[in-house]
Write a structure and sequence with these properties.
Elements (H helix, E strand, L loop, with lengths): L1 E8 L9 E8 L4 E5 L6 H6 L9 E6 L2 E2 L5 H7 E4 L12 H11 L4 H14 L15 H14 L4 E5 L7 H18 L2 E5 L11 E6 L2 E7 H6 L1 H6 L6 H11 L11 H14 L1
Parallel strand pairs: 3-8, 3-9, 6-7, 7-8
Antiparallel strand pairs: 1-2, 1-4, 4-5, 9-10
Length: about 280
Amino acid sequence: MIQVVDVSFGYPGQSKDLLTDISFCVSKGEWLSVVGQNGSGKSTLIRMLNGLILPNHGQVIIDNLRVEPNNLWEIRKKIGMVFQNPDHQFVGTTVFDDMAFSMENFQIPREEMLLRIDESLEALQISDLKYRSPEELSGGQKQRVALAGIWALRPDILVLDEATSMLDAVSRIDFFLQLQRLRAEREITVVSVTHDLSELEISDRTLILAEGKCVGCFSSLSVLRNVILREKYALGSTFLDVFCRALRKEGIVVRSSYASLSELVEDVCQLFVKM
């Protein structure tokens, strides 16, 4: 579905490329998280997937189409992008107008357009916002509206550029629950830039970038279990890291971290069985 082959990118006049020799693949229906410190090149990389930025070297291939100027329209029919600040995506005076604008650009017939808008709003449980102004909405509502607008276009690939960074913890959980459900309905492919390590619990693999280079692409569960790897590349700690440190401080022998709470509970239960 997605192939990135030996991609490098740098702006004219810069002495050092922002990205160097990046290669990875994403299969249909897979969820790839992209993590790394600020300035590691994450946002630059995903903007190459739909041709917002073109590589200086290497190639990006989407569903057997090379991303290049003469086929960007076809590529962008396949990819929907949700950015960190949804305000930057709104152009209509109401939610309906905004969703309709994008669909009209893709020449979707009006009857089909109306059907898709209603279906998408209902799927995200925000039908009541249909005729509201985006300016009146909360951060969580704006993110759902942005996702509904993209969802109505029915892309094969969904790209999220820190799309939940403005949401509180409860809203983030709800957003991802909705996205998981929608993803299962259509088997779409997801590529998501994130600083929220809890997202790795629901993604399949994690690509780690450091100083514009690809450290590796790992199973997301292995990244969550590997504290040393996360510390080495300053990816941050999870709640379970902190909890495990507290347990060990109290003399309860557990691993340094776990991929999920259920894994930790299983180990703790085994400890009590052995007592």
